[in-house]
Hints:
By secondary structure, the protein is mainly beta. 6% of the residues lie in helices and 37% in strands. Strands 18, 19, 20, 21, 22, 25, 26, 27, 28, 29 and 32 form an eleven-stranded antiparallel sheet that branches. Strands 1-3-6-5 form a four-stranded antiparallel sheet, with helices on one face.
Amino acid sequence: MLRGTFNQTLYGTLLITACATVLTACGGSDGSSMPGNDANDAKRQSLLYAYPDDGQAEVPTKAPVVLRFTSDVSLGDVEQSVTLCCDAEGGNLDYTAETVGPDPRGVILTPAQSLSPLTDYTIAIKNLRLRNGTATDRTLRFTTRPLAEGPRSLVVKDEGFAIDRQMPNGDTNEPIMDFSSFRFQFTQPVDRASARYGDTVVLTDSSGDTVEATLLINGHYMTVDPKPEYLTPGQSYTLSLTNGLTSTFDEAFAGTEISFTPADSSPRGEPAMLVQRITQSGLSRLTGKNINQVPVNGTLLGEDVNVTQASADAVVAELADVTEYPDVTPIRLPRGTKLTGSAIEMVMIGGEVPAGFGSGPVDMRLTSDATGYLVPNPYNVHNRADALRIVHLLMDVGIATEDPRANGGFTQDIMHIELVGVAEVDTEAGVLNLDAVGMVEPNILGQEYGYGLLSFQLQSYKDQMNAPTAPEDKTGPTLQSWTLGTDTLTGEDKSLLAKPGDPIILNFDEPIDPQSANDAITLSLNGEPVEFDLWIDGAAVVISPERLVSQGPGKSTVIQYLNGIEESEENSRKIYTLHITPDITDSSGNPINVEINKNFELPILTQNKKIVIPSTNYPELDNLINHAPIVLAAYPGFPCALSKTGRNLNKNIAGRCKGAFSGISDGTDVDNQPADDNIPVMEMPKHRPILVQFSKKLIPNP
């Protein structure tokens, strides 16, 4: 419940006026002050905005560089005076420069090659001519994030498992508020099974009582979002991360306790709520791209073909009292806020080939409070009125689609989306505009991590008294499909295609609250409980075999999955039962209200082989041969077993398929035939693991 009884929409109207005063006082424009063109102005030219921000960490490797200056800039001058450094040899990176359409003060630099993970980069601006003068020299620094998957050296930041970044950190630029969510970025990916709220991660109040909270884990990222909308200002709290936490590389966390006293966001008793909308048309002033469009780019889907347009007529944003926090103003978008993405009418593979289905409307929901700050512009070295306040906003988003086929491949949580933008009060229109830039990196069909540049914009309503009301979510999640059910198109039993050790995945139609699933799911084999790991990814509930990590030869890591679902046996049938209580909820707390019971059995392994002797009618039992495992699939792929005949790796020739026709060249014109084709050496993107799947369970280090 929101605090206070004062009309909050009226307070929102007054808030815009207060914002205009505070933004102007702190070097941000109220929309009325534009850059001058006098002789003095020529000495006050500079950078006013940058993405990545100076000092930003965890920058995606596909991110462009977005710059905005005090006056117009030409591409030729940018190419002469702006450098991006450094490549593997220490030289400057090549890039393509593009002017921002609506605002020639802006430019986007797209590196010719993807940035390298875990690498420090600098953007140097030196002697850059602008329309009204020469910009003050400036050097910006940022660091790219590790890979989500790949070689250990590119996935871990440090050999020790530790917190690399905490947000908020409690200093003057990131005060801990009564509505704060806590985000942690670790040096190694977190083992989801080791992160248990109330055990290895717990928030307690001054009495030692546990505070309800949502715990989200994805890769290196963790979010702890207290369930109470507000903690009690002035009360002491302790957030404990214990040494029971481990990384996916089986490294133990040392443990830490964070004690804090949250500041009061509304000391006058009334939360400052602004009703805003996700704008659906126009171009971003920062990037020149379509506002609030989310493209999903990658090898599998192509470039700028699969795009969804986000929309919401009523999004509530809360600002801490701007009169109490005039310099650094905390901001929050509540957990459960829903954005609706337009349907991708036809998913295009490689941007060219129709997949045969679309996405349906896309449900994009905040799975925790999105929190951040409006801060003074750090690039405003000349105290200019047109230097807008900078916005930092971090959000966790769960994605689901209406079409079950698309949902099975795309539902997921995308955590710690970091937006860097500007805030401006347009006094003529009477609205507060937030424009920001960030990168979205969704996992595409479990095969690759895509990317998309998000040009985000929120705009408040002028008339807060008559602004639309954010719709209240009262509908619980509905089960769309699951991996061992019946194929709705063919009617076939999908369990017949399952392999031992495969996870069980249930896809719902909206993102699920992870804490609600902890005690709601049981799995049994012939009536006996089976241990498993459980995690939530967007609208997917994933039930996976227990994971055991050990060190292999050299720098390799061996991962074993224990207690996975197994094939049934002819002489010993294995019947599994999956039970889910009605207590699983969405991020707004709405339960599924349906008890789910699923019985299933994997394909039956033949144990009694019968042979029929010719000229008799009496079959006899025969011994089964226990064959060695065979390769079922590999990445990178190959079309056949290869012969070394004709192999020439220097010419990119791997050889021919075994048994391939070698050709005839010494016969008559009628006899001579060309040889079968050579097989080229298969290509694969760098930083990808080599995967081989066998027909049977393997014993590591036999």
